[in-house]
Amino acid sequence: MTAAMNLGFPRMGGQRELKKALERFWSNRSDADNLEAVARQLRAAHWRLQQAAGIAHIPSNDFSLYDHVLDTAVMVGMIPERFKHLPAGVERDFAMARGVAHEGERIGAAALEMTKWFDTNYHYLVPEIGPGQGFTLGSTKPVDEFLEAKGLGITTRPVLLGPASLLLLGKAKGENFDPIALWPRLLPVYEEILRRLSAAGAPWVQIDEPCLVTDASVRALPALEPIFERLAGAAGSMNILLATYFGGLADALPTVFRLPVKAVHLDLVRGSDPLHEVLPLVQPDQVLSLGLVDGRNIWKADLTQALGRAEKAADLLGADRLWIAPSCSLLHVPVDLEGETGLDPELKNWLAFARQKLDEVSLIARGVEGGRSAIEEALAENEAALRSRRDSPRTRSLEVRRRLAAVTPEALARAHPYPARKAAQRHRTPLPILPTTTIGSFPQTDEVRKARASFRSGKWRADEYDAFLKARVVEAIRWQEEVGIDVLVHGEFERNDMVEYFGENLEGFAFTANGWVQSYGSRCVKPPVIFGDVTRRGPMTVAWAEYAQSLTARPVKGMLTGPVTILQWSFVRDDQPRRETCWQIALAIRDEVVDLEQAGIGVIQIDEPALREGLPLRHKDWADYLQWAVDAFRLASAAVRDETQIHTHMCYCEFNDIIASIAALDADVISIETSRSQMELLGAFAEFRYPNEVGPGVYDIHSPRVPSPQQIEQLLDRALAVLSPEQLWVNPDCGLKTRRWEEVKPALVALVAAARSVRQRLEGASVSAPGIP
Ligand code: GLN
Ligand code: ZN
């Protein structure tokens, strides 16, 4: 029998119940029992929902209060020294996830680092591994949750993050040390867990090894066979499903099917392993799980096409050696489309969230089992929905397509190279050396948020809200003038979010009411849906920039989000290459840039914090992505005159391996995050001899700590060791919207004081040493 199965379900709940429960707990408004009760209810509801959808293999231990990588680290006893004094339990888990503040007697401890889970927008906590790491059984969560479901009458398949991926995802503490080498020491804990799961009566266990779809798999491959030999031994009569997702296995394919596992899951949406090459590798007693329904996006699956692929596999393997599944865990899509009453019926009919995807999985399985006639009606409905999407005039704009087709190489390049532009910019916008600026946003205070809510709910008229925002801009401009900042910003008070704001002002975007996905811990994001060709209805930011500029003689910097970031942080249409969607957005931003210039704005910043995030998982695919992503930025920015200064901003990423692409953006100025690493990140810019101007962040905006002028001066001196004074800008790490004015004000006063002091020193030096150019 072809079984429908699932790899993982979103944890938060359709109404973000988990988020609310976590935040109540953290702010001492509830206790651990309350939190656990909410978690239990969610798990039970999700298991039942999957059962009702006809899923035969329902996962457990896919739930987590914070993060499944953290849970796995705790399970194997990877507790960093600084948390060891805390008793095991949720409090210690949250301490590792969120850090402990230093307070009176209590010694503080920094949280584990957080980083992106492969190329998703989910962030996991990075386990720390030193060469001396020992492993012990630290929790029995997988067994407990299996038994919890069993108690409800539901037999689940516990999910474990596999030992190879756990080690590869960790952060090596120590030189020349590869954590994968520790697998023999780690294995006994996994063996113990498998023995306990088997004893508890689990018929299957799912071992996730997503690292096998990355280049890091070469480090794991030699260990894979001995690892799985031992796991299979410990599992006894319990069967192992090895799950891979987010890409193809490529060279790892033959090894994976040689392992002593009873089933292998492949991502057939993102994976590029051709089915006809996979099928002959499946051992006679193995089951193949086909990931046919996209777990990373919100579009309805093409059921006929998916069924076709499944039938092909069934022909060779037999229907009872096949499972149908989503491509990966459904963690990355919202829970339920049903409640989205705000979406128009046509668009809604094109979408599928987690719940609807499970229905699709079930349908495909039934289609393989009982033939197409068994699901005739559903197939017809699905075809009609796909046709409606394919044929809808809403998804295509002839004008945009013509314009995109006509883009020439000249459109991707500024009129003159940077040195010529620099002179023109100096002339148009005279600035001192080491000019000071900020990254764009000022505090989004309760007052600002309340005003937005009042406007959105209809309590405030548009003109009332507008007057409120203008008053905030006036305050911000006056205040920046007083402090003595050189290039001002209007403060972004009108923006809820740097992507949503633009999406709401562009054609081709739709917004859900409840389409939340987990970003990290209790943090969720609600990505816009890009369903059609992107066009600008009209200017989006010009009035704000113009208004701010009318208030001051100092230059005001226009503030835009770049095309790659808008693309990365949205659910993107799957009926054309990402590149094309990105370039359409770029054209819209390009028009905005030109309008800003025409309105008299001489400095324009285009933020691209997500540029690096878009990098494909396999290194061989990097060059292609970087080419079109960089060109998208250039398309957005290059239409301006020499004297208009283009800035970009990026934060919290490694620059070393993409520095050439960053330079290829050809922005006149780039501001980057560097203060947390004490300017270490600047090394890449120095080594590369980055030609344009750079604003290395001089204070960490994620910390409420206010820096002193001396600290900032020290950082500026470090920057000056590798950059020339003509290249250097002075700015914070990132936007200030999450901070309070009480923190921002003294910090920026210190920043200006530090810049002035270094300027004086430099100018003094050049006066006393006239021979030096
Ligand atoms: N201009 C944006 C801001 O200041 C940049 C945010 C970001 O880089 N994430 O808020
Ligand atoms: Zn930033």
What does this structure look like?
- By secondary structure, the protein is of the alpha/beta class.
- The protein has a domain at 422-506 and 541-764: TIM Barrel (Alpha-Beta Barrel).
- The chain is built from 27 helices and 21 strands.
- The strands form 6 sheets. Strands 1-12-11-10-9-8-6-2 form an 8-stranded parallel beta sheet. Strands 17-18-19-20-21 form a 5-stranded parallel beta sheet. A two-stranded antiparallel sheet has the order 3-4.
- It is globular.
- The chain starts with a strand and ends in a 5-residue tail after the last helix.
- Residues 769-773 have low confidence and may be disordered.
- Glutamine binds next to loops.
Beta fraction: 5-15%
Uncertain spans, ≥5 residues at pLDDT below 50? 769-773
CATH architecture of the domain at 422-506 and 541-764: Alpha-Beta Barrel
CATH topology of the domain at 422-506 and 541-764: TIM Barrel
Q: Roughly how many Å is the radius of gyration?
A: 27 Å
Any ligands, ions or cofactors bound here, and which?
glutamine, zinc ion
**Number of H/I helices:** 27
**Separation of termini?**
81 Å
* Main beta sheet: 8 strands, parallel
